[in-house]
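Issue 218. Parser rejects a valid record. Input:
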Amino acid sequence: MIISSASDYREAARRRLPPFLFHYLDGGAYAEHTLKRNVSDLSDLALRQRVLKSVGEVDLSAKLFGEALDMPVALAPVGLTGMYARRGEVQAARAATARAIPFTLSTVSVCPIEEVQSQVGRPIWFQLYVLKDRGFMKNALERAWAAGIRTLVFTVDMPVPGARYRDAHSGMSGPNAAFRRMLQAFAHPAWALDVGLRGRPHDLGNISAYRGQPTNLADYIGWLGANFDPSIGWKDLEWIRETWKGPMIIKGILDAEDAREAVRFGADGIVVSNHGGRQLDGVLSSARALPSIADAVKGDLTILADSGIRSGLDVVRMIAQGADGVLLGRAFVYALATAGQAGVENLLDIIAKEMRVAMTLTGARRLSEITRDSLVRALAEMPVSAHGPASANRANGGEGDARDLVDDAPASVSVPS
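Output the parser choked on:
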C-alpha cells in the first residue's frame, strides 16, 4: 500500500499487528469519547490562510530544555513500544536522533534504559510513573542519570488505571488472554517471526532490571496494577524534585490550577495531556484545555501538548493554541510497527513538510509567528459537543478516513500490502 499520512500508517499497522497489540495502542478508556475529541477538536480548528505575505524560508527549529531541535516535536513515552517492532524503542530513538528531536523512553519499555541510550548519539528523555514502590522509582532515576539522561518526564495522571474495554475484547486482558494472544500471533507470522521471536519482547527491561528476574506481559500487568498510588500529592514528589538535577516535565496536566501548582512545585515544563484518552473518558481534549492553561502559565515554564496529534497541521494548531512544542504518540508507533526506524523517519519528514505548508499559507516564517491570530477562532470560543462536528466519520479509536485526518500529505512511500 502507498503511505502518505499517519492514517495510512495506522491502516498498515492494523494489518500487520496481532489484534491485541493494535487495539492496545489504538484504543482508549470506556466509550472513547475523549479519544475521539482529541482528534476532532484539533481538526475543527480552522487555520487562517493568508496570501502574499513574503514567506521565503520557513524555519521549524526550536529549543526545548536547552536542546536545539529541528522541529518542536518529541516522541512521546509509549509503553511496550518494543512489542510493535524488533527492539522497537531502539529503532524509534534512532529515528528521533536522525531527525534531531528527542525520544522519550517509557518506564514500561521492552528495551532497558542502558540499551536505548547506548544506541543513540544524543541524550534521550526518560518517563517515570508515580508508583507505590519508591525503591523502583529511585532505582530508575539513578540508572537514567548514570546512562547520561538529563530530562525527566514525570507522568502524574495515572493514579488508577482507566477502564479500557477494547483490551478485554482483543485479548490483551480478560479470560484466556494468553491463549488468545498466542493464536493471534500465529495468524500474523511476519510479526511473530520478526518481533515475537527475534525481538525478545517478552521481557520488560526496566522492571526486570529492578526485580532481578524476567518480567513478562502478565507480570507487568500485575506489577503495575499493584503499584498505582492514588494517595500521592505534590508534597510527596518533593524528594524527586530535590533528587533530579536536570529538567523535570510534569505530564498529565489538564487544568489551569494544576498548571499553577506545577509552577509552584518547580517544574521546568508541563505536558497538557489526557493520556491520549486512555484514562478518564469524558474530560476535555488536550487542544481544548490548552488555551486556558497557556493563559495561566505561559512564560513561567515550557508548555508541551499531546493527544490527538496526527499531522504537521496539528502541530501548528497546538502551537497556535499556546504550546511551545508537542509530543507525538500513537502516530509514530503506527509508523514503527509498519516499517521500523525508516517508517518513523518518513513520518517525521511528512510532519515537517506539512508544517512548512501550513506556516507558509498562514504567513508564519518561524514558530514565534504562530499565534492565536493564526487561527480563525480558538477552541475556547467554540461550543463543546459530545464528539465535535468532524468526528462522525471517526470510528476505530478516533481515527477515520485519511481525507478527514491529514490534508494532502506531501510525501509518500510504498510498503508491502
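Fixed in the parser; the record now loads. Confidence is low (pLDDT under 50) at residues 385-411.
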